[in-house]
């Protein structure tokens, strides 16, 4: 039987990232599994993670996330992260969510 990948918060971010929960601020920490980073979090969303845990991930709606990402890039056009990095983060989250779904 395959076990789900639990997430834990790490204050160590390898690159500059956008928070995937609100998609409005730069991330300051990241939720990760043992082998990869899954959800970059800003300070506010990290505080919510400490209170609500996995429930905050339910706030992530694909359509809204894409829309807000475009707004975020319009506001910070020349800053990291690039759209490519944000896109990779979304893919990693999607893959993780699919794995968890299969298990539950
Ligand atoms: Zn956030």
Provide tags for this entry.
single chain, 104 residues, alpha+beta, 3-stranded antiparallel beta sheet, 3 strands, globular, binds zinc ion
Report on this model:
The chain is α+β, with helices and mostly antiparallel strands. It has one domain. It has helices spanning 43-52, 62-75, 83-103; strands at residues 8-10, 29-32, 37-41. A three-stranded antiparallel beta sheet has the order 1-2-3. A hairpin with a 4-residue loop joins strand 2 (29-32) and strand 3 (37-41). The protein is globular. The mean pLDDT is 91. The protein binds zinc ion. Zinc ion (ZN) is lined by residues 19, 21-22, 25, 41-42, 44-45.
- How would you sum up the global shape? globular
Low-confidence stretches are none
Number of strands: 3
| Total DSSP helices | 3
Q: Give the bound compounds.
A: zinc ion
- In N-to-C order, the SSE pattern is EEEHHH
What's a concise summary of this model?
With 104 residues, the chain is α+β, with helices and mostly antiparallel strands. 43% of the residues lie in helices and 12% in strands.
């Amino acid at each position: 039987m395959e076990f789900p990948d639990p997430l834990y918060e790490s204050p160590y971010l390898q690159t500059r990232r956008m928070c995937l929960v609100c998609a409005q601020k730069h991330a300051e920490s990241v939720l990760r599994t043992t082998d990869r980073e899954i959800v970059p979090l800003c300070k506010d969303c990290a505080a919510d993670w400490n209170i609500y845990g996995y429930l905050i991930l339910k706030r992530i709606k694909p359509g809204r996330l894409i829309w807000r990402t475009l707004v975020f890039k319009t506001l910070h056009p020349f800053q990291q992260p690039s759209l490519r990095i944000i896109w990779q983060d979304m893919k990693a989250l999607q893959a993780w969510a699919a794995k968890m779904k299969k298990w539950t």
